[in-house]
Each structure stands twice: as C-alpha cells, then as structure tokens.
Amino acid sequence: MSMYHVHPFLQIIATLLGVYVARLGVQRFRMLHLGAKVRFDWRRHVTLGLVVMPAWFFGLLGGLALGWLKWGTVLVTGAHYKAALVMLPLMALGAASGLYMDRNKAKRTWLPLLHGACNLAALALALYQIRTGVWVIRNFLS
Prior knowledge:
By secondary structure, the chain is mainly α. It contains four helices and no strands. The model has no long low-confidence stretch (mean pLDDT 94).
C-alpha cells in the first residue's frame, strides 16, 4: 500500500465511523424533536465525533500534501477538492457547536439542529468524497 492509498483508507474508516456517529445523533433528534422514548448515548456520540472531525480535517490536509508531493500543486482533483473545501466550514461549525454543547450543558432545540444539519451535510460530502476519490485514484494515480 503506497502513501497515496493510506489517505483514502483512513478517510473511508473515518467516514464509516461518521455514519455511526450520525446514527447516534439521530437518536437525540428523535428524542428531542419527535418525543420518542429512545436512549441517546451522548458520551459515545461526543467521543467518536471527536475522532471523526479531526480525521476528516487532517485528511483534507493530507490530501493537499499528497497533491503537492505528487504534482507540485494543489486543487487539481476537480470535484474531490471542491467537496473537501465545502466540508471545511461545515466541519468547523459542527465541531464547534458540538464542543460548546458538551461543555455547556443546557436544554436546547435550535443549536442541536444546526449541529446536526452541518454534520449531516459534511457526512454526505464525505460519502461523495469516496466516489470522487475513486475517480482520482483511477485517473491520476493508476
């Protein structure tokens, strides 16, 4: 496995973990907004979210570094880099709102919605990144 395959491997693992974290977050949504009597594993959601967000962020930096090492430039992979750049503010807002809620516990309705919306959008883009990443590997690295 070359260094150019470590990046996608780690990002796929982080994204699959992100799917699980989102599933946990959906429980909070169901509890808070739909009145469902479900268990929200808050500690696991926070702990694993603190793994996924930095993994995605450092994956973005790693992807830029790999582009620089391979081609001497960055931002040449089309939709792949564009989706990553759109993910960046979503990740920042999602992570910041999550950290804020974790450190300042209170009853809230709109901040968890904002947090969830940003993170679900970032997750959707991360899943799209898998598709565009396959394209990058096939067209740039094979």
